[in-house]
Amino acid sequence: MSDQPRRDPAVAKQSTLAVVAFVFSISGICLGPFGSLPGIICGHIALRHIRQDSELGGKGLAVAAMTIGYIFLVLFAVGFCYVFLLTPK
């Protein structure tokens, strides 16, 4: 027997950065690009860390954060263009 504690393979260590990215991306609802952009950036960094460390989980959360962040960023850009560029003065 080994003195090392057993790790349950079903329970992976969750990436904190993936959780932060998800929270930032969801905050894009209220904060616009000030929430979406940090969510996208943190999501990409978290995904890179998850790929490098095989014991780190949260890939789905990082991908969801990036997807939500990009969607809110595009919606903000479309709304901005509509309000400031396409409306008659």
Task: Provide a descriptive summary of the structure in words.
Helix 1 packs antiparallel against helix 2 and helix 2 packs antiparallel against helix 3. Strands 1-2 form a two-stranded parallel ribbon. The protein has one domain. The protein is mainly alpha-helical. The longest helix has 28 residues. It is built from 3 helices and 2 strands; from the N terminus they run E-H-H-E-H. It starts with 12 loop residues before the first strand and ends with a helix.
Q: What is the count of β-strands?
A: 2
Query: Number of helical runs?
Result: 3
Strand content: under 5%
Order of helices and strands: EHHEH
Short summary of the structure?
The protein has 89 residues and is mostly helical.
Blueprint of the fold:
Layout: E1 13-14, H1 16-31, H2 33-52, E2 56-57, H3 59-86
Parallel strand pairs: 1-2
Summary tags:
3 helices, mainly alpha, rod-shaped, two-stranded parallel ribbon, single chain, 2 strands, 89 residues
